[in-house]
Amino acid sequence: MKVHHLNCGTMCPACERLVQGHGSWRKRGKLVCHCLLIETPECLVLVDTGLGTKDIQETDYRLGRIYPFLFKPQLQLEETAIEQIRALGYDPRDVRHILPTHVDLDHVGGLSDFPEADVHIFKPELQQIQQPTPKDHRRFRMVQFDHDPKWQVHEHEGENWFGFSVIRAIPSLSADILMVPLIGHTMGHVGIAVKQGDKWLLHCGDAYYHHSQISQTPSAPAFLNFFDRNIAALPDHRVRNQARLQELALNHGDEVKIFCAHDPVELQRYTDLNTTPTPVLNDSSV
């Protein structure tokens, strides 16, 4: 099983020093939308979608004003998941399953590019977008769901994985793909664990923002630390789950490779510039 690490949305917020923790006060920083494209024997699976084609074509309508002002997305069509999938030689219709870590606008903008895919979501996350607070309206863009996503709602099952209670999201697939509840950033935020050989990858979404947050001496660049603290739906759970991820990284780093959604340093570790995929057949049985 091959896993492709994709950047589906470069963002350049003001002040490299405050975003990266080093560099210029005048130069813009850089963040990414780190998504996964998983080749399974049955179909293709996406973890997060980043920004989609409609976000680029109808930016104000789809993304509003606050997010583009704060994060300065570059809005490049070639960075969308659907265009990168085509560039790899695949048919986008072979994406049968999408697992968003959560439904903030920069993680699900591409859902509408794959309208036939099942979208797997943790129940508290769906409840949060169905009953949003005024604060939620700034982070969730309901227009991104106008195509009526094929939600597949999951509740806790309790299977143990490195001390985390997890959900086996797509039992019909031969691949090991788990939803790992990491609530805090949103009410139903999850990580996605993917078995690759004898090791695991854990996409942590926005459970943290910068690799230094799960290091032996946790810290974070000022802008990311401020944003992380102020946007959290459940602040105590956010802190607790970051500590659990730090413990996992320190104690099981040889078994589980951990990364978040927006850290360009982490993405660079996994980017494979010599990908030679074998396209999956368009079999509608999955």
What does this protein structure show overall?
It is a single chain. This protein has 286 residues and is an alpha/beta fold. The protein has a single domain (3-270), classed as 4-Layer Sandwich (Metallo-beta-lactamase, Chain A), CATH 3.60.15. Helices cover 28% and strands 21% of the residues. The protein contains eleven helices and twelve strands. The chain has helices at 16-20, 53-57, 59-63, 66-71, 81-87, 105-108, 123-130, 136-139, 222-231, 235-252, 264-270; strands at 3-7, 34-39, 44-47, 95-99, 118-122, 150-154, 159-161, 164-168, 177-181, 190-196, 199-203, 256-259. The strands form two sheets. Strands 1-2-3-4-5-6 form a six-stranded mixed β-sheet. Strands 7-8-9-10-11-12 form a six-stranded mixed β-sheet. α6 links the parallel β4 (95-99) and β5. The longest helix has 18 residues, at 235-252. It is globular, with a radius of gyration of 18 Å. The two termini are 17 Å apart. Residues 273-286 have low confidence and may be disordered.
